[in-house]
Design a protein that fits this description.
alpha/beta; Rossmann fold; ProC C-terminal domain-like fold; 2 domains; 58% helix; disordered N terminus
Length: 285
């Protein structure tokens, strides 16, 4: 596609998306896009794993290739869904082709900053994303940061792609990606740990493993849904279910005795600091 035809496709709203890397996150994004009505004929995936490509081609009906250069020649938006350790080797040989095509590059590789990406891909529009694993079931949360080369229309395209698997939030300062990593990127594990502890405690209280699992998972789902759908702050919802002298107040009092809120704050700060460290290590290497 030459520059004039690219411009025409952009203006009409029709464009193609290519995924370099066909792992779980790419699969989830592809399935999400198809579910929202994005045409399979406008989706591409490249991966050295022929089994992955065969499944995508056979089940989803999208274009597949083992050659990244072929994908770049067809894609207006390129999603980098490869491991951080190999991303430099993947993108450097593609720089000229991406730049000439004026394609948007979206990276979901953890720890790779937009500055680092632009060092490997100068004069290319880059958006850095921090999704989380619930995107695999369509309930993800993604933080996005765009470099100055990114147009408003390209930002809309990136948001559409990531919203296919959940909610999105834009960040004006890239350093806040580390905070997003601490809150939502690593966040599912915090809830899994809480659920695990509640299940273990429920079993010790005499409930069967199956009953404990159902009680905990439905309670977690219900609590999250109430926050999402009522518009009430978590603090207010907590107060609503905490009767003076009741069972909930007793349990919350024990949490407070052990400085539960301070522990959460310390844990998130540690995760945020480690995210900064890892980005610096990857950037230097």
């Amino acid at each position: 596609m030459n520059q004039s035809s690219q411009s025409s496709s952009t203006q009409s709203g029709k464009y193609s998306i290519g995924f370099i890397g066909a792992g779980n996150m790419a699969n989830s994004l592809i399935n999400g896009l198809l579910a929202t009505g994005f045409a399979a004929e406008d989706l591409w995936a490249a991966d050295p794993d022929c089994t992955q490509l065969a499944r995508l081609s056979g089940q989803q009906g999208i274009h597949t290739t083992s050659d990244n250069n072929v994908l770049v020649s067809h894609a207006d938006v390129i999603v980098l869904a490869v491991k951080p350790q190999v991303i430099a080797d993947v993108v450097r040989p593609l720089h000229e082709a991406i730049r000439e095509r004026k394609a948007l590059v979206i990276s979901i590789a953890a720890g790779i900053t937009a500055t680092t990406l632009n060092r490997w891909l100068p004069d290319v529009a880059v958006i850095r994303c921090m999704p989380n694993t619930p995107a695999l079931v369509g309930k993800g949360m993604t933080g996005l940061f765009a470099t100055v080369q990114v147009s408003d229309q390209q930002k809309q395209s990136a948001e559409m792609i990531m919203r296919a698997v959940g909610e999105t939030v834009w960040l004006d300062d890239e350093t806040l990606i580390d905070s997003v990593t601490a809150v939502s990127g690593s966040g599912p594990a915090y809830f899994f740990l809480m659920m695990e502890a509640m299940e273990d405690a429920a079993i010790k209280l005499g409930l069967s493993e199956r009953t404990a699992r159902l009680l905990v998972q439905q309670t977690a789902l219900g609590a999250a849904t109430m926050v999402a759908e009522t518009g009430e702050a978590p603090a207010q919802l907590r107060r609503n279910v905490t009767s003076p002298g009741g069972t909930t107040e007793k349990a919350l009092g024990i949490f407070e005795q052990h400085h539960y809120q301070s522990l959460i704050a310390e844990a998130l700060q540690g995760a945020r600091d480690r995210s900064v460290e890892l980005s610096e290590i990857i950037g230097k290497s």
